[in-house]
Design goal:
The protein has about 240 residues and is mainly alpha-helical. It is built from 13 helices and no strands. α11 runs antiparallel to α12 (about 205-215).
Length: about 240
């Protein structure tokens, strides 16, 4: 009996370590390129993600890996009701850890992305929009020049911009120079959002400049094409 228990424990421990190694080896940018090119889920990514969603809860030490896997799975969720439901369940667990997350700048930035990528399909759109600036402000309160927080704050402002929001527009323009310093996945999102911003203020040339820039980052992605079609129809957003 004791021998059987030790063997079972060893197998469980080994499998847990395999998942941990696989999670560390997953390159988010490569997975996004693969998804945009093929339109199919990577089963290994989903399986690694589900090691967290099926736990029934999260510890603060789990959050970084969970957020990084969620970055890719949030795109899979566009075509999967099952993954969307799992996100909604996990959001409740994340909410319980929010205070601890906001104490750490790196986790806060990952938290912003985790919510931002759900916005297009989540039924909790209002709560997401309300939470995003709080995350950025928590980081900027500790690190006033944090470029990741500043550009995300600008992205949030641009998602609700208009010709009359002078102060918001100034902030968006002021932080535009940070775009090229970002990693590709963040730069891609920023380019899309700045394209929307410039279309709102009737700078068509600058808007399409950012759409072309986004296409250069992920050539197979559909988002730039979708926005171009929407712009042609007079719809300045998604």
């Amino acid at each position: 009996m004791e021998k059987r228990f030790l063997i079972s424990f060893f197998l469980f421990f080994s499998l847990t370590n395999v998942f941990a190694i696989n999670i560390k080896e997953i390159n988010i940018e490569e997975q996004l390129h693969e998804y945009y090119a093929t339109g199919t889920e990577n089963a290994d990514v989903v399986q690694a993600w589900k090691t967290y969603t099926q736990k029934g809860g999260l510890e603060i030490d789990d959050v970084k890996d969970f957020f990084e896997l969620s970055y890719v799975c949030s795109f899979y969720a566009l075509a999967s009701d099952e993954i969307q439901k799992e996100f909604q369940t996990m959001n409740a667990h994340i909410k319980k850890l929010e205070k601890a997350i906001l104490k750490d700048s790196e986790l806060s930035i990952l938290y912003f992305d985790y919510l931002w990528n759900q916005f297009s399909w989540s039924p909790d759109g209002f709560s997401i929009v309300s939470c995003l600036p709080k995350i950025c402000k928590a980081v900027l309160k500790k690190e006033s020049d944090n470029p990741d927080a500043k550009i995300r704050m600008a992205m949030w402002y641009s998602s609700a911009c208009g010709e009359t929001t002078y102060l918001w527009n100034s902030y968006i323009r002021q932080n535009e120079e940070l775009i090229d310093s970002l990693d590709n996945k963040t730069k891609f999102n920023a380019c899309l959002q700045y394209a929307i911003f410039y279309m709102h203020i009737k700078d068509v040339k600058k808007s399409f400049y950012y759409l072309d820039k986004a296409e250069d980052i992920f050539p197979d992605a559909l988002q730039p094409l979708m926005l171009k079609e929407n712009f042609k129809k007079g719809r300045f957003g998604w």
